[in-house]
Amino acid sequence: MEGLKVSDANLVVYIHPSKAGKVSQSILRELSTLLFKYNEIFDGVVLAYDVTIQNKNAKVLPGIYPCFGVKLKAKMLLFSPKPDMLLEGKVVKLGKESLHVIVLGFSSASIAEEDIREEFRYRIKHGEEVFASTSHKRHVIKVGSMIQFLVKSFDEEILHISGSLIPVNTGSTKWLHKNMEEGSMVDRKKKRKDDRSEMHEHSTELLDDVGFSLKNEGRPKKSKRQRHAEQS
Amino acid sequence: MGVELATDRPGFYEMVDVDVSDSELVYHVRDALKSVSQGDSDHYNQLIAVMHYTGRLAPDEVAMLVTSLKALSGSISYIDIIHHESLLSSIFGMSMWNYGPDVMDALVELIISLAASNGKFVDSCLDMLVRNFTPPKSYLDLLGHPRGLARKHEVLDRVHSALSHIADLVPLAPMRLTPIILQRMPHMFDKETLIVIYVESMLRLESSALGEFVGSTMLMALVDRLIDLDVEISWDDIVLEDSGKGIFDMELEDVDDIIGYAEKDGFEHPRGTLGRQSLGTNAVADKLDSLMVLACEHLKSCADGERLTKVFETLLQSFWVTILNAYKSKFSQFVMFYACSLDPEHCGERFAVFLADIFVCRTHPALTRMSAVAYLASYLSRGKFLPPSLIASTLKRLVDWCLEYCQVQNGEEKTLYPETHRVFYSGCQAIMYVLCFRMRSMMDSHRLKSQLLHMPLEPIFRHQLDPLKVCLPSIVEEFLRQAKAAHLFTVSETFLFNNLLESDLSKAFGGMERLDMFFPFDPCLLKKCDRFIRPSFVYWSMVKTTYDEGEDCSSEEDINEYFDGNGKSYMDGGITRSLDEHDLDLDEFECQLNKMSITPRNSLKNGLINKLENYMRMPARIRPSTSPESL
């Protein structure tokens, strides 16, 4: 699957003096506010990060709150789908007019009827709604199948993808893997599994934080940050 | 506009008239939508008009609305956020409460499809659904009727299932849902039914699958609202009524009568007479009461669903952030009390440990620590469900801390500076308060008795910081009395308090916030939620003191007789609620206090006096609802 990349980043996280006793915890907390949001600087949605503190010494920023800046090196897993990329996702809803897919468990995608190629027809088979291929009998898309689709556009705010099943190499991944001989498909499958497990770890962390970080919005910002990102 | 227009519009109407298939209707709608950008809005406007059908709809109008909505669901990809703005705002403005189940289903289907199709619609769809948590203002009164209630279930079931469907299709929707819910929460001055029905939906979300993501915010918002309402109730609203009877003759039913009189007479009662205390009719108190009931019911269902431990953590956080530092929260804290009573082993203990931790931790501000220990003292005394071992161990912690503090103080000051050592004094007062309630039961248990006797109380109370002089005299007096009877320790000087409620020194350590007179878990005066609290609550009249030699309490009838549930001594009612001196004349107050006191001036162990004592305490009737075994 395209659209996933790992970037190296040099970051500086500014920490409020009251957190001086628990630096690692506050660093992780700050970084977790980045998760599942599109970040312009990194050009992608941060899914996971791996952080190492570079230096035990930190520079103090002069000002009303003397925050100190900790330098970090981080490996960031980023998701940045661009038009004409191929993505894989699971079908969650199927209707005559549209297909709804979830990518990597967090990003929603929808494929409208006009973006589904003529080959697929909407049918009701054994009481179940499916998109069945007219040229290949076994090529069937139904709720729960994994499909590969092309990215048309990506809404960065809600992380919603608009997709297309027009190209020939899109459709049910199960059928495509069987019938299209591409060696790299196997590697991609493995990488996808690793990415997803890493992502799940951090997704639960975020979901715990969401409840409290929303409450924290009333309080003044605790740290200012500057970020320098280098892409390897 | 709606009804007349339908007949005026031959175009649309005819289409439905002529048995048209669904797909053709979908194409028709798509054409209508497409032609807007080309300048032709006729069919488009007709479509919008259908959305505006109001009032009692005829069956064909209903059919029209349903088919239009379904056709729109099929044309989602043709809906453009800019060109079709008026159509979208009409759809999002629809209230499901105005329609029947068919229209509701079609509308919900459309909303779900809209949310899933395009990221731009998600917020508006969620907003529309949240707005449907509450009915239109005109509908509020109908909620009391069975028809209104049926409609409520129809709407809310669909709204919540729609929210969960959207969350399935758009995984990040819950994150966007939370700020919308908080923003649309009714203001605390809105109507009670409105607030209640909205909070019902909030709590329903908390127990649903979405609860994992939004649950904690919902609970915290609820506690915030409780405190907002709590703070609005002024102490003036706590009506002091002239009972006209002896305090121990007062029974629960009579209280309702008295409240009835109060409402009739318009509160023409002489101030300064202490009889029953209750809240007069007060809209804010009613709202708080209803919300507390909702909260308690929700906690009960969490306990039944074995989720309470997790929910309790959120509640505890919320308590710390919101309630603990609120200036004299009156009733909101009873939510914590109830939660603890549902699970004494985990939650009950957790709360006590949490409060004790705050007290001993030096990095917290003094006021927070004093407040925490006041909560702790009141909690340990009033929680019927608390295991004696927990009370003993927490007491030990407080005692150890106080002792350490004493040992650190070395100076030979002759004058007392209560304010400097206010945390210490609040700790001492807490110890005394808990022992007033629990000394007898601790002495009765062999193990706890030895623990108690080993506690270094004497060095603390005899220290030159002199807590016995500084702490609230009424508590000190009761404590000394019981301590003497239990042979816990004796003091060389006699303290003559003359039944003083408070002293200058106690006021000094209490500070501006009067934390010397803060007993947060005093009997809850809210009528509706009281039924949740009462079974696990220790009233002062239920407490056996160490100087009550005459009672054996082996016979159950005896227990019944002494528990009238609301019998107040100066421990309940009086000192704890009447805090503003401008409201009460202190002399009159003291006079009433004397009248009410169940204990005579001199602690006589004489059998005759005891009998008189018992006679004075005997209430008129046996009240099964307040006796312990019926609980």
From TrEMBL, chain A:
- Keyword Nucleus listed: yes
The biased composition feature labelled Basic residues covers 221-232
Q: Where in the cell is it found?
A: Nucleus
Q: Name one GO cellular component term.
A: nucleus
Region span, Disordered: 179-232
What are the alphabetically sorted keywords of the record? DNA-directed RNA polymerase, Nucleus, Transcription
The record's section on InterPro entries has: RNA_pol_Rpb7-like_N_sf (IPR036898), Rpb7-like (IPR045113)
Tell me the Gene Ontology biological-process terms attached to this UniProt entry. DNA-templated transcription initiation
Basic and acidic residues compositional bias, start-end: 194-205
According to its UniProt entry, what is the function of this protein? DNA-dependent RNA polymerase which catalyzes the transcription of DNA into RNA using the four ribonucleoside triphosphates as substrates.
Query: What name does this protein carry?
Result: DNA-directed RNA polymerase subunit
Organism of this sequence: Nelumbo nucifera
Q: What is the lineage of its organism?
A: Eukaryota, Viridiplantae, Streptophyta, Embryophyta, Tracheophyta
- Gene that specifies this protein: LOC104589764
UniProtKB/TrEMBL annotation, chain B:
Q: Name one GO molecular function term.
A: RNA polymerase I general transcription initiation factor activity
Output the GO biological process annotations, alphabetical, semicolon-separated: transcription initiation at RNA polymerase I promoter
Task: Name the domain of life this protein comes from.
Answer: Eukaryota
Cellular component, GO annotation? nucleus
Q: What is this protein called in UniProt?
A: RNA polymerase I-specific transcription initiation factor RRN3-like
Family label: Belongs to the RRN3 family.
Matching entries from InterPro entries are given as: RNA_pol_I_trans_ini_fac_RRN3
Encoding gene per record: LOC104608523
Return the Pfam families for the record: RRN3
